[in-house]
Amino acid sequence: MLTINNLTKSFGRFRALDNVSVQLDEGQVVALIGPNGSGKTTLLKCILGLVIPDSGDIQLKGQNVLYHWGYRRSIGYMPQIGRYPDNMRVRQVFEVIREIRNSDETPDTELMEAFGVPQFENKMMRTLSGGTRQKVSACLAFLFNPPVLILDEPTAGLDPLSVEILKDKIQREKQKGKLILITSHILSDLDELTTHVLYLMDGKIRVHQSMDALKAETGEGKLNRAIAQLMKQDAHATH
Ligand code: ADP
Ligand code: MG
What we know:
By secondary structure, the protein is α/β, with parallel strands linked by helices. Helix content is 33%, strand content 26%. The longest helix is centred in the last third of the chain and has 16 residues, at 160-175.
């Protein structure tokens, strides 16, 4: 569904992505992990067309995405930090986005209801706490029922109940056969959801494996332990 071929991106002399090739398919929940500065956000932004790669290409459903921006309708994006006009009410943000989208389709308001958006929809965006702002971003990502979801640190700042609500939503969308890409530092948040792990280091893919294969290889059931185990093996191999 999403094919990335030999993607390379440098900022000046620094190579943020180094010949990344990967194929991701429907129904997968891919945990995109790796140390700070390993290129995760750059990769996501390349997929979204917000960063233009130096070389390589990205295809969504067989269509090259570069300079063909129509494909963005197929992606719901929850940025790590959502930025909104300070003096807009929550309700207005949703209205404006729906207006811009100009779609006849019924929006997916499931998450808005689960998060109780109507209870704070008259508040100004600037008065919202970080977590409530995250809820708005999450609701927007799912609003137009996109076949692909890109969630950058979606659980950061959410209270435990809200994390569970969001996880339930991701689970339901996964079952509809969507492709979901998630970055998170809190790997335990991803345990039950993840089908595949994509581990980036210094702009290169170090691990791309199904959870089942990763568990079998490392003998660890939990994502964070499995990754730690893998890194240990890696350190032994290179020293
Ligand atoms: P991650 O999301 O894994 O923490 P990023 O993709 O944000 O990493 O960044 C990868 C590297 O590229 C970092 O060293 C970062 O400083 C650098 N980088 C990212 N965007 C830019 C930019 N616009 N200009 C210069 N350097 C950048
Ligand atoms: Mg990042």
